[in-house]
Specification:
Layout lengths: L4 E4 L3 H12 L4 E4 L4 H6 L5 E3 H9 L4 H6 L1 E3 L1 E6 L2 E6 H4 L5 E3 L2 H14 L3 E3 L3 E6 L7 E6 L2 E6 L2 E4 L17 E16 L9 E4 L5 E7 L2 E8 L10 H10 L3 H5 L6 E15 L2 E2 L2 E3 L5 E2 L7 H22 L3 H28 L7 H14 L3 H12 L4
Helix pairs in contact: 1-6, 1-9, 9-10
This protein binds adenosine-5-diphosphoribose and P-hydroxybenzoic acid (PHB).
Length: 390
C-alpha cells in the first residue's frame, strides 16, 4: 500500500487528524489494533474544551456534538461542608466547555471516515515502524495471514500510552518524565438522573469524589480509591454509600442510585515523552503524554497536537513550507506542559494523600481559600479549564 500519512491508532487523535487531512486532499491510512466494537465499548471522559469542539466542527464531525452535547458554563467544588461555584463563562471571558462522551465522539469520527471512504484498517496486528529516522519510512502489519507493507511520507504515532510508536524511538533520543499518584479513580456509569446539572468536584477527608454526566439520563461518578482496590470488590451498594459520604448532605440526599452499566478503576498518572518527533515519526495524544483526569485535560491536550500537526502537514503538502513540521515538537510540548501543570495542580489540591503532612493539608485548604477569594486565581483556573489557546 502507499499513502502520504500513515496514522497508527484509531482513537480520537488518529481519527480526527485523518479526517482533517482528508478534507485538505491529503491521503491517510489509519491502522488500529482493535476491532471497532472494542474501541467503541471503552468508556472514557466526557468534557471537551472549546478548541477541541471547534476542531470537530472544522472536521465536519460536530453536528451530533452540537445537538446532543451540553454547554457547561461552570462547575462546583465541594469542600469543607460547602459548595463553591467556578463561573467559567465569567472568568474565561465568555468561554465554556462541552459535555459530550468521548465514546460518542469517536463514533462520530468513525462515521465521518466511512462517509468519505477513509481507509481505516481494524485488527491490524504486529504493527511495526521501519526507517523512521530517514525520509522514506514504512509500516508493516499483519491482518489474519496477510502481511502488509505501507510506504508513506510520514508516520503519526497516535496509538495511546501502550502503543508501539513511542517505543520505536531509540532510547538515547527519548526522555520520559513521569509521576504516579498513590491512588486511582473508581468510575461508575449509571442510567440515572445526574445529581447536579453541573459537575461537582468534591474534596473530603475520606478522599476525592466527582459527579459528572453524559446526558440528563446518564450519570458518571467517580471516587478516589487505593491502588490495591479491585473494581470487582466494589458492589454497587458500597459505591453509592461511599459516594454519598463524600458529598455535601443536601447533594447526597438527592442522589439517584441504580445499577452500574460500567465500573472500572483507572490509576492516576502524569507522563510526558520528549521530543514528540523523531525523523519522519510524529507522536500525538496519549502516545506522548498522559494527565490525571482531574482537570479534564486528557483529550484536550491531544487537541493541540492534532491542530499543530494538521497545519504543519497542510504547510508541507500545499505550500512547500516545512516550518510547521520542524517546530512541531517544541510547540506541542509547550502547551502539553501547561496542561500537565494544571492537572497536577487540580489533583494535588483535591485528593487525600496517604502520607501527607498536616502542613500539606493546610496548603490544600489555603489553595481553595485563595481560589474562592481571588478573581485572579479564578481567572487562572477558568482559562486553563476551558483550554489555553493553541
Ligand atoms: N497498533 C495499532 N493501534 C494501536 C496499537 C498498536 N500497536 N496500540 C494501541 N493502538 C490503538 C488503541 O487500540 C487505541 O484505539 O491506538 C488507539 C489510541 O487511542 P487512545 O488511547 O484513545 O489515545 P488518543 O487517540 O491519543 O486519545 C486521547 O483518549 O485515553 C484517552 O484520556 C485520553 O482523552 C484522551 C484520549
Ligand atoms: C467524566 O465525565 O468522565 C469526567 C469529567 C471531568 C473530569 C474527569 C472525567 O475532570
Amino acid at each position: 500500500m502507499k499513502t502520504q500519512v500513515c496514522i497508527i491508532g484509531g482513537g480520537p487523535s488518529g481519527l480526527l487528524l485523518s479526517q482533517l487531512l482528508h478534507l485538505q486532499g491529503i491521503d491517510t491510512v489509519v491502522l488500529e489494533r482493535q476491532s471497532r466494537d472494542y474501541v467503541l465499548g471503552r468508556i472514557r471522559a466526557g468534557v471537551l474544551e472549546h478548541g477541541f469542539a471547534e476542531l470537530m466542527r472544522e472536521a465536519r464531525c460536530g453536528e451530533r456534538m452540537d445537538r446532543e452535547g451540553e454547554i457547561h458554563e461552570g462547575f462546583f467544588i465541594a469542600h469543607d461542608g460547602r459548595m463553591d461555584r467556578v463561573d467559567l463563562h465569567k472568568y474565561s471571558g465568555g468561554s465554556s466547555v462541552v459535555v459530550y462522551g468521548q465514546t460518542e465522539l469517536t463514533r462520530d469520527l468513525y462515521e465521518a471516515r466511512d462517509r468519505m471512504q477513509g481507509m481505516v484498517v481494524h485488527d491490524a496486528q504486529d504493527v511495526k515502524l521501519h526507517d523512521i529516522a530517514g525520509s522514506s519510512p514504512w509500516v508493516s502489519y499483519r491482518k489474519g495471514d496477510e502481511l502488509v507493507r505501507v510506504d508513506c511520507d510520514f508516520v503519526i504515532g497516535a496509538d495511546g500510552f501502550h502503543g508501539v510508536s513511542r517505543k520505536s524511538i531509540p532510547r538515547g533520543v527519548l526522555r520520559e518524565y513521569e509521576k504516579l499518584y498513590p491512588f486511582g479513580w473508581l468510575g461508575v456509569l449509571s442510567r440515572t438522573r445526574p445529581v447536579s446539572p453541573e459537575l461537582i468536584y468534591a474534596r473530603t477527608e475520606r478522599g476525592f469524589a466527582l459527579c459528572s454526566l453524559r446526558s440528563q439520563v446518564l450519570s458518571r461518578y467517580y471516587i478516589q480509591v487505593p491502588l490495591s482496590d479491585k473494581a470487582e470488590d466494589w458492589s454497587d451498594e458500597a459505591f453509592w454509600a461511599e459516594l454519598q459520604r463524600r458529598l455535601p448532605p443536601e447533594v447526597a440526599a438527592r442522589l439517584e442510585t441504580g445499577p452500574s452499566i460500567e465500573k472500572s478503576i483507572a490509576p492516576l498518572r502524569s507522563f510526558v515523552a520528549e521530543p514528540m518527533r523523531h525523523g519522519s515519526l510524529f507522536l500525538a495524544g496519549d502516545a506522548a503524554h498522559i494527565v490525571p483526569p482531574t482537570g479534564a485535560r486528557g483529550l484536550n491536550s491531544a487537541a493541540s497536537d492534532i491542530h499543530y500537526l494538521y497545519h504543519a502537514m497542510v504547510g508541507h503538502y500545499r505550500d512547500g513550507d516545512d516550518r510547521g513540521l520542524e517546530g512541531y515538537s517544541a510547540k506541542a510540548l509547550a502547551r502539553v506542559w501547561k496542561a500537565q501543570r494544571f492537572s497536577w495542580w487540580m489533583t494535588m489540591m483535591l485528593h487525600s494523600f496517604p502520607d501527607s503532612l498536616a502542613y500539606d493539608r493546610k496548603l490544600q485548604d489555603t489553595d481553595l481559600a485563595y481560589l474562592f477569594s481571588s478573581e485572579a486565581a479564578m481567572r487562572s483556573l477558568a482559562e486553563n479549564y476551558v483550554g489555553l489557546p493553541f
